[in-house]
Amino acid sequence: MNRAVESPLVRGGLIIMAGLVTGNLLGFLRVALTAYLLGTHARADSLAVAMGPIDTLNSVVINSIVFAFVPMLTAAGGNARVALFRRLLRVFAWIFATISIGAIVGAPWLMRLLAPGLDPAYFAAATTNLRIFALSTFAAGAAAVYCAFLYTSRRFGPMAFYQAALNVFTIAAALALWRAAGVHAFAIGYTAGAFAQLAIVWFAARRDLAHTGAETCAVSWREIAAKPAFFVVYAAALGLNIVFTRAYATHVGPGMAAALDYCMRGVGVPLALLVSPISNSLLPEISRLRSLARMRDAFRLIDRTVLVTALAAVAGCGFAILFRQPVIGILFQRGSFTAESTRLVAAVFLGMGPSMVGWSLIEVTARSLFALDRPWPPVLAAMVPLLLNVTITLRLRSFRPEWIGLGASLGLMAGFVVLFAIAHAGRRRWLEPGAALAVGQVPDLP
To answer: Could you give the CA distance from residue 320 to residue 273 in angstroms, rounded to a whole number?
Structure first.
């Protein structure tokens, strides 16, 4: 037991798990407050269609930075690591600021794309929400660069509570500003939480960055900007799977996009508890094994992790579907969230709930392959869920809530099957002598 607790992999996973549990418990409080104040009214849609895509974008940004640059920063040492970090921060601060400004300026056009069936009476509110949420992308991106730096020294704690910070500030702002700002209070709180998290990781890293000698980073800004490209494409494709489903839901009827987002809380919590602790603590370990050319050990670690994830995901999914209606009623049915809202969300969850199985499996497998510097299989497999979802949804054209998430669930499972097949077909080639460093030479890690 003591040896397990002393392991960096186990300890890192426990810290991240603690942060995720805290964040998701607070997340339930945030969603319960949203349900109480907004229910499944069209006004709730104006929040869901703005918050959902930005939350997905921020997740893509954070995961892309972490998985692209933790191995690079880990391979560097001392002043070289600090110099690389500062170059990363300068380059991506401009990129994230440009994204935020672009979303603010283009909010009306983006909203027509993200919510084509939204009630016109709530279009202006949704656009304003999107503009407020867009500011959070700059803070989330900058915090991710600090996070990658902290991960190289196995300091998982500061960023582990990212969701907790978002939810605390969102709840506080909603309670304090509801009468003055209405639905916009949620957007104000979310964005304030993102900047609070940036302050936390800056504070945690300040000592490591304060007393270092001057050293010039040899990596060009073009190479830095291109480094996360594979993971951005992968994560964006998975994110668009849900963005498309939410956009289609606005055509089904008022409150349907909000109902989908309430369901995503039931999918997102077990997904986060399965994927994030495993993948974030697994990344440095797999990178280390790869640098030492111990590919067989890396694959054994991945296989065991995928098996455990599959067992947990199937069990969790079965429980969630079986008890969905009473649990939704207990959690949310009060205030503006009526018994009819409970039945609506339970119906949507029937199709959306199974997505947690395929989603968790494809995420754990893909992130492990990224750590092995094998980006093409995850990128190719990530296209499958979106393409299959679009095909199934547009083919069915159903306005029944039970069918809204069916395409997303089937697509994610198909994506994992494709990724599993590609990875195992290429494994023998990757195990050949010298294959561990074939994609890019990485020196031994400290």
So the answer is: 15
